[in-house]
Amino acid sequence: MTDPLAARAHPLRRRPRVLVPAGPPQTRSAPAGTRVVVVGGGVAGISAAVVLAERGVAVTLLEAADTLGGRLGSWPHTLPDGTTQNVEHGFHAFFRHYYTWRAILRRADPLLGFLRPVDGYPVISRRWPAEDLGNLPKAPPLNLLALFARSPSLRLREIAGADAGAGFALLAHEADRTRELFDDVSATAFLARLGVSERARQMLFQAFARSFFCAEEELSAGELVAMFHYYFLGNPEGIGFDSPSEDHLTCIWEPLAAHLEAHGGQIRTGVRAESLERVDGGWRVAGVEAEHVVLALDPGNLRSLVGASPDVSSRLAEQCAGLRVAPPFAVTRLWLDRDVRPDRAVFSAVSGEPTLDSVTLYSRLERPSAEWAARTGGAVLELHSYASRAPDAATASARMRAELEALWPEVAGARVVHEYTQFGANAPAFPPGSAGTRPAVRTDTPGIRVAGDFVEVPYVSGLMERASMSGVLAANDVLAAVGAGPEEILGIPQRGLLAGLPVHRLGRLGRARV
Asked: Of 12, 275, 413, 476, whose CB is crowded by the most CB atoms within 10 A?
């Protein structure tokens, strides 16, 4: 049988790979009395906690906020008219190759009926006509060929100066080789070397790079190449994605919390873990003792927690101390007194603007916002700046609104009934040279695992899927320690279409030459 991890992303093959096979049925249950504390109630933490609780582990989930979810969280907000809507940290695309995260979500809804397809993936600009990255054939390389045939940014004159070696690198992703050649290179330098026109760079590559909450000049080209493989060139499901038709609290976090508690798990919100203390038989965290701990925090809070815990190893402390947080993200939700044009897409990526990176029409996406719009004749929009250079929330919101008015002129004449803005910095950065310096799921501190979308995992994945996969990998490591079998993990082909082929130009793109 072909090793699924060694196999390339074969053309026209549209199916996930089994990265971690499920253990035999007789090894499913953990020994009675196994205790785990999971610190952090976001995607990574809930993924670990659900798998462990289902196996009979006594799980306590600690979350500092009043609600679960992390960067996917949702909470009530009262509007001026006295009605309440649940707001969120920003729009998230639930891509169809998020196999691990979708498997966890099926605990809340086995048919995933709360997800609805979002049509298209338009990239809009005030400089060039919009382009749609969605509705392409699923299988590589047909998706790439269709994009070349359809995109005006990829006409011959737009790519006449392109560097074939850089283009080959996008098709030849191979984890170790990609890291060796490109981790020390910035995404800015890589895209400059790619040599495509400014139009192609802004409409196709820059909009994609910024969606990882990182400034392009501070993002490792190795991460960019890996994510290009993960989301496009190695993805057997296509670039299409779904989004919840309800707010995240209603359709994700309340059902998952109920599922966890039904399997004996305990959830304690409003509890901040300040330090880890070694005790006989394990660890004490926020007054909870357990043999095993899964740290599923954002990088800043993980850095603080481990820094205040002298009992962890020096290696883990060093790895966590080196974690960097991405620039702040800004999210503004606007309730307008009138609707926007009927042809506006539900979700649009924005290219070429200094602040605005995306706009989402929530009143055409989720039920509560749609009901408010139907009742008032208005619209509910969300503006998102993934790596904001604005100094504060008010400035970011004002800039995003001005940029949107240039793109959607009808917004300029609308009255803002209500505005809700968030401004925070808790997303991970992936700066050049950082691969191999971040903590892995298994640490050298006995009993401690780390999970999150910044953790070094052995399989290519991104954003919510990387968070969920790391959480299940952490759960599997605990299960292995107590003699239970692993939870199955599916993923995409791990190597690119041209990985391993002897194309010597690839060597010209090494860190010394870019």
From this structure: 476
